[in-house]
Design a protein that fits this description.
Pfam families: GH3. With about 130 residues, this protein is of the alpha+beta class. It has one domain. The chain is about 40% helix and about 10% strand. The strands form 2 sheets. Strands 1-4 form a two-stranded parallel ribbon. It has a two-stranded antiparallel ribbon with strand order 2-3. The chain is globular, with a radius of gyration of 16 Å. It starts with 16 loop residues before the first helix and ends with a helix.
Amino acid sequence: CSSGTSAGERKLMPTIEDELDRRQMLYSLLMPVMNLFVPGLDKGKGLYFLFIKSETKTPGGLPARPVLTSYYKSDHFKYRPFDAYQVYTSPTAAILCTDSFQSMYSQMLCGLLVRTEVLRVGAVFASGLLRA
């Protein structure tokens, strides 16, 4: 489902495993292109505030969750190959923590621990960065 940030309520969007392959390919193209204009994005670590959201079930019993939550919970994310553009300060367990306050605390703590290596700070949505 959508994150609900545009209209205030989530909308269902059917998706299949192949969709994660396409999204992963898109993400892998994004950073090298940005690096052409902002050199050095492949250096250091990124303190990105990444979170999962709650999920529900459809009347038919299928999981309904935001697209990013599906991606973070997938093997595509958990077992992703090394990518110099996606070296995060946070371990996957901190990102997958269902308690957003504990997740935020853990991600901040991990970022502070390796603060001399952090060259990028961000979040998928501006609201996540503002909360941090």
